[in-house]
Specification:
Length: 282
């Protein structure tokens, strides 16, 4: 009976030792596998850059290279358990995402499109990408700051111009345009400081401005007709009552005429401003 008990203890001890060795080997294998996987991803992400410092993107960087690297590192983010390896993966993910944003900026700057919708889209995308990398890739950001800023200003100007029209093709100006709408568009164009761009988009502002001026004229004429009708009725009553001018000494017609003159002055000033801008870019 005693031998049987000793034999059972021996079996349990051997089994425990076997399991310890087995799980130890398994952990070693898992850790080794993680290390190899992380090293492979690190090497792949390093290829997105021109040097091991990962300061500037590789000369022939492509979207497919970036997408493949991001897919690999994103998979590791959810599967790696070792603390040290997690830190490496986190850095690799940050650099992979930065490479994607830098490529977005380069693609936008190099597009050189004349299509306004595309320029607006590229300006918005490049600005968002720039904000994402300016802190972690300062050298690259410094090189592209001016180009991204100008492209974003173009997108803002186009957005203001689009507000002047009812359709995406910019063929039909809105009927309720105000002078402030026109001024905002002109200000945005001037802010770009690019003659070719201004020369391309100013005709769209001119068309909208002409439509707005015509609308103002129509409204003014309707206001004049209404005021004249009211003034005739008032004059008739005044003649019957044998009274003089209104208490403030300004007749309705005079007030309307003054308002029309003010609108005409504003329109002339705006027209002169647009003409000067056209002359400057012509």
């Amino acid at each position: 009976m005693k031998r049987k008990h000793i034999f059972q203890i021996l079996i349990v001890t051997l089994l425990a030792g076997y399991l310890t060795v087995f799980y130890g080997m398994r952990n070693t294998i898992d850790t080794s596998f993680e290390q190899h996987a992380v090293q492979a991803a690190t090497q792949q992400i390093s290829q997105l850059y021109s040097s091991s410092k990962r300061t500037f993107p590789a000369k022939h960087l492509s979207r497919s290279m970036v997408t493949a690297a991001q897919a690999k590192v994103n998979q590791l983010v959810h599967n790696v358990e070792n603390r040290d390896q997690k830190k490496i993966v986190a850095k690799d993910k940050r650099d992979a995402d930065a490479a994607s944003n830098m490529l977005t900026i380069q693609e936008a700057i190099n597009a050189q499109s004349s299509n306004l919708a595309q320029i607006e889209s590229e300006g918005t995308r490049s600005s968002a990408a720039y904000k994402a990398i300016v802190a972690i890739k300062p050298a690259f950001a410094a090189d592209y700051q001016q180009a991204v800023t100008q492209l974003y200003k173009k997108s803002l100007a186009i957005a203001q111009i689009k507000k002047l029209y009812n359709d995406q093709n910019l063929q039909h100006p809105k009927a309720d345009l105000s002078s402030s709408n026109i001024d905002l568009a002109i200000n945005a164009i001037e802010n770009v400081e690019n003659q070719d761009f201004a020369k391309n988009v100013l005709p769209l502002v001119q068309v909208a401005k002409k439509s707005q001026a015509n609308n103002d004229t129509t409204v003014a004429m309707e206001s004049t007709d209404t005021s004249s009708t009211k003034q005739t009725a008032t004059t008739g009553r005044q003649n019957q009552q044998d009274t003089g001018e209104p208490a403030n000494g300004v007749s309705g017609n005079h007030a309307t005429t003054a308002g029309q003159a003010s609108d005409q002055t504003v329109n002339r000033a705006r027209k002169l401003r647009v003409n000067r801008l056209l002359h400057r870019v012509g």
